[in-house]
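Quick log. Single chain, no ligands specified.
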Amino acid sequence: MSLILLNGSSLDMAGFWYAVCSGAIASGMGYAIWYAVLPALKAANAATVQLSVPVIAAMGGIVLLNEPITLRLLLASVAVLGGIALVILQKQPSDGI
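-> predicted structure:
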C-alpha cells in the first residue's frame, strides 16, 4: 500500500524529527527503564506487567495529545490493570504443601 501512495507523499522535516524523537528517544528511554527494572521481576510478573503498555500509551495520548477519556477506554484500562493486579498479588503456594 505504501508503494501505491508513495507518489502523493512528501518529506516534512518536522514530521521526520518527530518520528526520530518518538522512535529513538522515547523508545530508547522506555527500553532503558524496562531493562533496569527487569532483573528485579519474576518472569511471570515481567510478562504480565508488559500487558500494561497499551494503557500507558493511552494515558500518554490523553496527556500529550488531548485525546478524550471515554467509558470504553476506562473500562478496558480497569480490566487490563485489574488482571495485572490479580496476577501480581496472587498468593504463591508454599513449597512444603
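The chain has five helices and no strands.
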